[in-house]
Amino acid sequence: MQMLTLQGKVILGIDPAIATIGYGAIRDDHVLDYGVIVTSAKSSIYDRLKQIHDDICELCQMLKPDVVALEMPFFSREMTSASKVLRALGVIELALGECGLCEPIFLHQSQVKASVAKYGAQKSEVQQAVMMIFGLSEPPKPDDAADGLAIAFAAQSGARANVK
């Protein structure tokens, strides 16, 4: 597998979900933007997925990423939320493809945590680590936004999941 060089590239990290999608954009050691996309639990699944699609397209137009990294969702036994998150992931990939970003980098949660803190790190540890890595004055909030930055950093550091 040929190693992708990401120096000087805008990397958008996305933590897929149905309710709160974290994102973070970096270039080298600089944070360009971070935040969350929030959908209302009172909205229909169609409206939530449509909002995710539209917001991801808007993010891509605004940030103009060269590369996108996505964390692969992890599920224990809760299949109802798993179904919704996987649908959201598909919509995110569709939006990325429409923006010309057809080959995202997929990462496992363990790869993301290990690249910024340690394997099994808690959310607060990831926030603190991201703050230190990028020299931020405070931890990125909410924690989903910190996850987006951690995902982008993990991709920049060369982490890759064995997923196609």
Give a structural overview.
The chain has 164 residues and is α/β, with parallel strands linked by helices. It has one domain: Nucleotidyltransferase, domain 5, CATH 3.30.420.10. The chain is 45% helix and 19% strand. α4 packs across α5 (143-156). The longest helix is centred in the middle third of the chain and has 20 residues, at 79-98. The two termini are 12 Å apart. The model has no long low-confidence stretch (mean pLDDT 89).
List the helices and strands and how they pair.
Layout: E1 10-15, E2 20-27, E3 30-38, H1 45-63, E4 67-71, H2 79-98, E5 105-107, H3 109-116, H4 123-134, H5 143-156
Parallel strand pairs: 1-4, 4-5
Antiparallel strand pairs: 1-2, 2-3
- Low-confidence parts, pLDDT < 50 over ≥5 residues? none
Structural class: alpha/beta
What's the number of extended β-strand segments?
A: 5
What is the CATH first-level class name?
Answer: Alpha Beta
The whole-angstrom Rg is 15 Å
CATH-scheme architecture? 2-Layer Sandwich
CATH superfamily: Ribonuclease H-like superfamily/Ribonuclease H
Question: What is the fold named in CATH at topology level?
Answer: Nucleotidyltransferase, domain 5
Tally of domains: 1
